[in-house]
Specification:
Elements (H helix, E strand, L loop, with lengths): L1 E5 L4 H12 L3 E5 L8 H10 L4 E3 L6 H10 L4 E4 L6 H6 L1 H21 L4 E7 L22 H19 L4 E7 L1 E3 L18 H9 L6 E4 L11 E2 L1 E3 H17 L2 E7 L5 E2 H12 L5 E4 L8 E2 L4 H7 L7 H14 L2
Parallel strand pairs: 1-2, 1-4, 2-3, 4-5, 5-6, 6-11, 7-10, 8-13, 9-14
Antiparallel strand pairs: 9-12
Helix pairs in contact: 1-2, 1-8, 3-5, 5-6, 7-11, 9-11
Length: 332
């Protein structure tokens, strides 16, 4: 079975490709490398010992996607491609709406043309906005606090409407929380271009002396230590969730949403302290103003994914911190 992975050179995409290849799927990657690097393809091959077909193209480009679907008999798609930084989306909303919606609409149109009706969509916990209670369940009200989250929510609605219009579709929408960690080989991990927007790569840049200190955005939230609380999930656990979702869309038609998280919330300072302890390194930090669009706390109730996908996270926060630093050291 051949799976097209859009954004397959990215952080979550690359780990998912590894898991797919390990389960003997054939994989085709399309990625424009705007926030990833081409050498990831070779690293995936080194880890798995298997070949993967790669196209350096933009998913917004209809002609490029037509070529990919004509050259490959695609059975299902995992759609990661998209811009993903909350703060940047607040500053550049039009860019986010244009890219994230255009790429998805183009992809879905080409899939329909080629009668490929199975898709796993990379959504986000940002679709819940600031939840009134925790943990977050899939049936909670949906509203967003930033343009990035709004693009995800709009795409979710597009997918639901698509299934109403054509019941041939089989769609799994994965709302995931905060992936950190890296592959145990240390060959692939989170390596964004430019200044990091997420916590762990920021910590890593302090640990490797690329940055003098970590900016902790806000310490007046209504949380245990005043810093933001999130549900951090190991990227390998998250990748395995996509395999379970592929199994689901292959077997069953329909559209459904699943939270992929651990069900536990950790504050920014708890992550910093755990990282320091397991890696025996000091991380200097400074408290700065909270970022627009950020919320105090967010963690999942992952019960539904366990019941319906037979998936649950197994790797703990210590492993996430160890693997993140192991990857960083191997890049030097």
């Amino acid at each position: 079975m051949k799976i097209l992975v859009t954004g397959g050179c990215g952080y979550i995409g690359s780990h998912t490709v590894v898991e797919l290849l390990d389960e003997n799927y054939e994989v085709v990657i399309v990625d424009n490398l705007c926030n990833s690097k081409k050498d990831v393809v070779d690293k995936i091959k080194t880890i798995t010992g298997k070949d993967v077909k790669f196209y350096e193209e933009d998913v917004c480009d209809k002609k490029a996607l037509q070529k990919i679907f004509k050259e490959n008999k695609i059975d299902a798609v995992i759609h990661f491609a998209g811009l993903k930084a909350v703060g940047e989306s607040v500053a550049e909303p039009l860019r986010y709406y244009r890219n994230n919606l255009d790429s998805t609409l183009t992809l879905l149109e080409i899939m329909a043309e080629h009668k490929c009706y199975k898709i796993v969509f990379s959504s986000s916990a940002t679709v819940y906005g600031a939840p009134k209670s925790l943990p977050i369940k899939e049936d909670f009200p949906l509203h967003t606090t930033n343009p990035y989250g709004s693009t995800k929510l709009m795409i979710e609605q597009i997918l639901k409407d698509l299934y109403i219009a054509d019941s041939n579709w089989s769609i799994a929408i994965l709302r995931y929380f905060n992936p950190i960690g890296a592959h145990a080989s240390g060959l692939i991990g989170e390596n964004p271009n430019g200044i990091p927007n997420n916590l762990m790569p920021y910590i890593i840049k302090v640990a490797t002396k690329e940055l003098p200190y970590l900016n902790v955005f806000g310490n007046n939230y209504d949380t245990k230590d005043g810093t933001g609380v999130r549900d951090y999930i190991h990227v390998v656990d998250l990748a395995k969730g996509h395999l379970k979702a592929i199994d689901k869309v292959i077997k069953d038609k329909g559209v459904d949403c699943y939270n992929l998280g651990t069900g536990k919330g950790y504050s920014v300072l708890e992550i910093v302290k755990t990282f320091e302890k397991v890696n025996n390194i000091k991380i200097d930090y400074k408290i700065t103003e909270a970022r627009p669009g950020d919320i105090a706390a967010c963690y999942a109730d992952p019960t539904y994914a366990k019941d319906k996908l037979n998936w649950e996270a197994t790797l703990d926060i210590k492993k996430m911190c160890e693997d993140s630093y192991n990857y960083a050291k191997k890049q030097k």
